[in-house]
Amino acid sequence: MTNDDSGTGPAMAPIDPSPLSDEGPLAPSDVEGRASVGRNMFDLMSSQVVTFALGLVAQIVQPRFLGPDGIGQIQLAFSIWLIAQIVVTLGTGSYLTLVMARDPERGRALVGPVLLLRCALFVTSALGVALFAWGVGYSDEILVLLAITGLTMLLMALADTFTAAFFGLEQMRYPAIVTVVSKFAYTIVMVLVLVLGGGVYGLAFTTAFNGMLTLLLLGVFYRRFGRLSWRRPVGGYSGLAAASFGFMVAGAVIVIYLQVDMVTMSLLVDEETLGWYTVADVLMSSLLFIPTIIISVLYPVIGRLHDDDRTGAEDLVRRALSGLTLAGVAIGFGAFIVAEPFCALLYGEDFRQAGQILAVFGLALPLIFATMLLGTVALATGFKRFWTKLMVVGIIVSIGFDIVVVPLMDRRYGNGGIGGALGYIVTEGMMVIVGLRWMTPGAMDRAAIFRLSKIVTAGLIMILAAYPLRERFLLLPIGVGAAVFCAATVAFGVLTDDERSVLRRIGARVPILGSHVHGSG
Predict the structure, then answer these.
(1) Which residues contact 200 (CB under 8 A, 6 or more apart)?
(2) 3: number of Cβ within 10 Å
(3) N or C terminus: fewer CB in 10 A for the chain?
(4) Residue 493 belongs to what domain range?
(5) Per residue in 496-514, is it b (16+ CB within 10 Å) or e — as a string?
(6) Three-state DSSP string of 179-212
(7) Domain count, the chain
(8) Mean pLDDT for all residues in the chain
(9) pLDDT tens per residue, range 62-82
């Protein structure tokens, strides 16, 4: 792939103004039977709605059966393996998606070698994890959990290979179906295991079962698009690793960036505050489903068009950024309103302070949506090195900010986690400004800035109207806030033709959700 770190900007083709239409540039391509962008987004959105509900069940059930100690043990095992997983995957998923999008035949030839490479890297990583666990002196219970979790991570790494291939083929329907089926089965089995007293080991084995089911289903679906080839890839495995290395570095920096607040705060606050921050962070992550869907669909499209048409780059980014800003303000400012009573309702009054942290996260959410888009553009267009450097600066700023502000918030409000959340506003804002300036300088022109100001104003009006009602029945502030925000956006003329078209078509398709997801392509 080419590298545009020189600053020429990412190249993306213009998109038809009716994103969910069945005709025009976003319709299914005659090349490799790609599904339309609208179809892919709808499929992923459908699966996200189901998995969000099932995930909420897990968040409620697991702490009640395992207690803080059990949840901590499970989280520790997964945290260690998440770091090791950086080496196991080596960035091959992102690389495979781009190759598959640009040259499907070459991409199909890489699926088998990527599976083999991940198996070999897993063995190396497992040895590293074992040596680390032995050196630290973990208990026998933690060692057993690490072994079971390692099996889960191997299964997930292999399944992720097929998911990356489907994304490159722009066939998100199959991963969406598999996600719903496996998550549903996992939730049922998980609840039964915990009710029957399976404990942390039972939960760990249930997670491994989910990984196995996901791998098997994705493998069966992939047979519709090609047979696995185990031949040595062109350039050898060293060439495959070298081509993927940049993606691995970018992924590693993202992991560090997302975890550095937790590590820094663990040195500055007590375990109770850290628990509040963890709960708020998990809930905030669940609000990222919209940008996750959009970037998952656009990533292979951008990669496929990168070498062919650069005239629509800034227009596409502007339109995607516009929609994400609207969604980010609506969801984020809405979360700011109901965060405290929601956390108290979900987890009890002892977690009301987690709501204060989640409220600040809500204000940062529009910026997080934007950085997710810009990071995807960077990976797809050769700006990996630039974006990685920018995130390293973000890590340094985050650590310095936390050291100063977290103790301050702890002394003044009794909740240092607020300082950690405020750090996201600072670092994400910095990355948005720099990323737009250097990667897509035309994406934020006067018209875009004026529209952004109207969206933020509509969000502030929503807060003024609904915040005084936050302690009432939860649906009341949510309903009032949604109505006021919609009315304000209409009054200000915020919605673009694209967004009106998307809303009309989604409204028309929702009643036939089941037939759309499971119908013919």
Answers:
(1) 66, 70, 73, 74, 141, 145
(2) 12
(3) C
(4) 261-521
(5) eebbebbeebeeebeeeee
(6) HHHHHHHHHHHHHHHHHCCCHHHHHHHHHHHHHH
(7) 2
(8) 81
(9) 777 877 667 767 877 887 888
